[in-house]
């Protein structure tokens, strides 16, 4: 039993090994150089998770009784890892459910056939435009065309085998460039055989990118959201971000008991603290500083998950016991909002400016699909 003090109150917490979703960044390298990706602006070095460390993570995962899925994600393209398929086979051999985030461009027919045969449970693709000739030629969305082709091939393999797995999702990041295409894209993905569409927002890394956001009131999103909802009622599962700042704060990572293991073994509570990079919150620059709660080379995942620091962090986030820096009238003059190392209430790291907690930025969280497929 842990005992904490908060605002004069005494908090008692019984730590539990109740981690449900384990995200593993098997690599932070990528075969693409998308201009709006974290990788173009962070301060971190690149690397691949070594095989022995990967096996150690899986060994540790077997000691977590409530674990529902292992998910290859993070900030990188999992398929560039030289042992990507070995890792997939090892996870499935051990009986874990497996999810993967990918741009899809490196998936060969042979790899996709094996992913279906192995029973991989969930694959999320990144795609930001309907791959029409105009989009490819005028806006440079060549990758979307390649990704769409791969999705079509994967759907074909699923139908040939007669299986629902893997569940196929597509994540779309909304900007001023593509917001008006959202209904068209939803219909396109539905025809393609996609099961789910996740509609998220841009997290800007530069001033130029900050001009591309649509959740600052510059765009009336209501007509497009209504169309998306009508399409969703016709069979396409849809998860849609908020497009205006709301009071409620809800962390998908903490509420769903997620931990993220970086390629070097460091353990994080979410994607936001996985790397060090600049972000722009409604035009205000902030530095996000990486914050780990331990390394699986030195401790087990269970030890890290139930450590006092990590347990208290999750309690603070669940209780929203941290300042709301985004709409604070002092946020342009306060030194605490310059980075995420500490907030004015004494919390470290600081979640006060987190756009994930406001559901403006979303990431694939497997929880919604577990009842249907697992």
From TrEMBL:
InterPro entries: 4Fe4S-binding_SPASM_dom, AdoMet-like_SPASM_containing, Aldolase_TIM, Elp3/MiaA/NifB-like_rSAM, Radical_SAM_PqqE_MftC-like, rSAM, rSAM_sf, W_rSAM_matur
Record key words, sorted: 4Fe-4S, Iron, Iron-sulfur, Metal-binding, S-adenosyl-L-methionine
Cofactor(s) the protein requires to work: [4Fe-4S] cluster
Annotated Radical SAM core domain residues: 16-236
Protein origin, superkingdom: Archaea
Any Pfam family matching the protein: SPASM
CDD domains: Radical_SAM (cd01335), SPASM_Cmo-like (cd21121)
GO MF entry, a single one: catalytic activity
Entries under Gene3D superfamilies matching the protein: Aldolase class I
SMART domains for the chain: Elp3 (SM00729)
Protein name: Tungsten-containing aldehyde ferredoxin oxidoreductase cofactor
Species name: Pyrococcus yayanosii (strain CH1 / JCM 16557)
């Amino acid at each position: 039993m842990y005992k904490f003090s908060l605002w004069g109150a005494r908090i008692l917490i019984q730590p539990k090994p109740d981690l449900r979703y384990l995200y593993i960044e098997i690599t932070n390298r990528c075969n693409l150089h998308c201009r709006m990706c974290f990788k173009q602006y962070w301060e971190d070095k690149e690397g691949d998770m070594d095989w022995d460390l990967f096996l150690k993570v899986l060994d540790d995962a077997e000691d977590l009784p409530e674990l529902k899925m292992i998910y290859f994600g993070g900030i990188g393209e999992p398929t560039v890892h030289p042992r990507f398929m070995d890792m997939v086979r090892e996870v499935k051999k051990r009986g874990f459910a497996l999810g993967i985030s990918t741009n899809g461009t490196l998936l060969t027919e042979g790899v996709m056939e094996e992913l279906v045969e192995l029973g991989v449970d969930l694959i999320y693709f990144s795609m930001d435009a309907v791959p029409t000739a105009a989009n490819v030629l005028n806006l440079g969305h060549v990758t979307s065309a390649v990704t769409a082709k791969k999705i079509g091939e994967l759907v074909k393999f699923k139908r040939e085998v007669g299986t629902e797995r893997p569940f196929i999702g597509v994540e779309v990041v909304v900007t001023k460039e593509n917001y008006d295409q959202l209904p068209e894209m939803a219909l396109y993905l539905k025809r393609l055989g996609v099961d789910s569409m996740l509609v998220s927002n841009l997290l800007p890394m530069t001033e130029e990118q900050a001009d591309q956001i649509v959740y600052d009131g510059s765009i009336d999103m209501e007509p497009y959201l209504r169309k998306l909802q009508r399409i969703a009622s016709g069979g396409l599962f849809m998860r849609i971000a908020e497009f205006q700042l709301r009071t409620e704060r809800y962390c998908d990572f903490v509420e769903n008991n997620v931990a993220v293991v970086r390629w070097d073994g460091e353990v994080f509570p979410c994607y936001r603290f996985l790397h060090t990079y600049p972000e722009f919150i409604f035009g205000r620059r902030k530095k996000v500083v990486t914050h780990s709660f331990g390394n699986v080379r030195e401790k087990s995942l269970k030890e890290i998950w139930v450590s006092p620091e990590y347990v208290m962090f999750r309690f603070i986030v669940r209780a929203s016991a941290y300042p709301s820096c985004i709409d604070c009238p002092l946020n342009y003059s306060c030194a605490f909002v310059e980075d995420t190392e500490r907030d004015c209430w004494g919390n470290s790291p600081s979640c006060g400016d987190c756009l994930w907690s406001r559901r403006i930025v979303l990431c694939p969280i497997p929880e919604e699909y577990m009842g249907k497929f697992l």
